[in-house]
Amino acid sequence: MKVALVGHGKMGRIVEEVAPSRGIEVVDRFTRSCPLRADDATRRALSGVSALVDFSVPEAVVDTARAAAELSLSLVIGTTGWQDRVDEVRALAERAGIGVVRAANFSLGVNIFYRLVEQAAKLLATVDTYDPFIHDWHHRFKLDSPSGTALEIRRRMARHYGDREVPITCQRSGYVPSVHWVGFDSEADTIHLEHRARNRRGLADGALLATQWIAGRSGFHEFQDVLTDLLPMDLDS
Ligand code: NAD
Predict the structure, then answer these.
(1) CB within 6 Å of ligand 1 — which residues?
(2) pLDDT tens, position by position, 24-52
(3) CA-CA distance, 63 to 37, in Å (whole number)?
């Protein structure tokens, strides 16, 4: 399978490094100085490519989706920080009949962590002596804050906490790839759940798994849909 990358920074480079282990060949890369356009030259350069993998910047996502739609290429979007434009991207995908998979976090571990957090929230929301909180810690270069992952954790906790908004605190310092804590604090004790990424390879591999899954499919999907389809464990019930 051949893919092209949109964004060739920290994530794009790791996607390229991991791709051969999934039998995927990266044939082109688009960046800030060479953005994706739906012109004839690009169409020729991308002949044989079945999908684009986007780890770029939030401002570029809608233009990339528009170009992908015009080029009839599926799109896997790892870029975060464009939540307010999701409906536009969904509409573009549906109108063009291309497939899109997006996730704020393509790590299998994080997607299992979502499930654990949701179970904990379900249990602890019934006990009003515990105050819930989320903390996200990323390297100093991360642009968006809170992280898309922290927002997704809060969205899932809200299923059990209702109107009570779970606070998120953020730390942008150092070089750690990503840490998320979910805590429940009472006068007597604290319950902590932690996910700590050791490196970015798991994120790249998840995005590539989604790229293989979306081939031949259409419509707008979350990575959870991919995992629910591929893994024996039921992540959503
Ligand atoms: P980075 O700053 O290292 O790289 C960004 C890349 O985007 C650069 O190559 C830059 O040239 C390119 N770019 C900028 N404008 C562009 C444009 N108009 N068209 C095409 N490319 C353009 O960033 P990174 O660490 O690789 O992260 C990229 C994005 O992925 C961020 O939004 C980050 O939050 C997100 N991310 C998501 C996951 C996930 O699992 N979903 C994991 C890690 C990072």
Answers:
(1) 6-12, 30-32, 35, 55-57, 60, 78-81, 103-106, 144, 203
(2) 999 999 999 999 999 999 999 999 999 99
(3) 9
